[in-house]
Amino acid sequence: MQTVYKFCRKYGLEVLSHLKLKVTPPNQFNDPFEFTPNIYWSDPVGYVNHKLENESVLKDLYDNDPHPSGFEAFLKLVKTDQAKLIEQFVRLLPDEVPELEKEFLDRFSKEVGVLCMSGLRDAILMWGHYCDKPRGLVVGFDKSCPVFQQGKGLRPVHYVKQRVLYDACWNNPSPEMTHFTDGSIVSKNADWTYENEFRQILELSSPLLEKKVLPGFSGVF
Question: What is the number of domains present in the chain?
Answer without folding.
Answer: 2
